[in-house]
Amino acid sequence: MLYVSTEPGSSEKRPFLVAAVCLGLLCVLLLAGIIGLSVYYNRAIKDSEDKRNTLFQSFSLYKINATEERDELQTSYNNLTKEKGHIQTKLFMLEQHCQEGWRYFDSSLYFLSTKRKTWTESRQDCQERGADLVMINSRDEQTIVFNLHLNAWIGLTDSVTEGTWKWVDGTTLTTGYWGQDSLMIIKGKRTVVRYTLDKMTL
Questions:
Q1: What class has domain 104-195?
Q2: Where are the transmembrane segments (predicted)?
Q3: What pLDDT, on the 0 to 100 scale, is given for residue 200?
Q4: Are 160 and 166 a contacting pair, CB within 8 Å?
Q5: Is the pLDDT of residue 169 over 50?
């Protein structure tokens, strides 16, 4: 008995194999393309985020610097405003004092009293005027006091510790700009100094 084969021959299978191989290669290429695009997309996103972070940091730093500069300018403005107020106050006081018998010499004001008082009374009078007995701390001030042509108390005493001369602000006398005979030391309840014009050393 003879049977007729119904299976296709090898020549008929070849086109299907070629198509399958091509389809497989196409899938591989498509997968590679997808992977490549995914890598590129992720890298692009990362670069974009890095740029955004850099811009954000730059903006934050600029904002901080701008804030600091603004605060510094505000502080400078406030200081200048205060200084202006102090200068205006000093000018007003200077005008008032000059009208009330004060004299201005080398950035300092001196009040010349013609009343005879003790050292303590003289200092109290000075303090009531917002001042104190004169302290001669430089040769220039020595010249100013000398040019006033007055015998006057000065703010020098050793009442706290005998022999240790101190000015009325508590500082210790280190240098004297006068001759020994220019000072009259008055001893009593407290040892004080009176400036005289008998002799003068400049």
A1: alpha beta
A2: 16-41
A3: 35
A4: yes
A5: yes
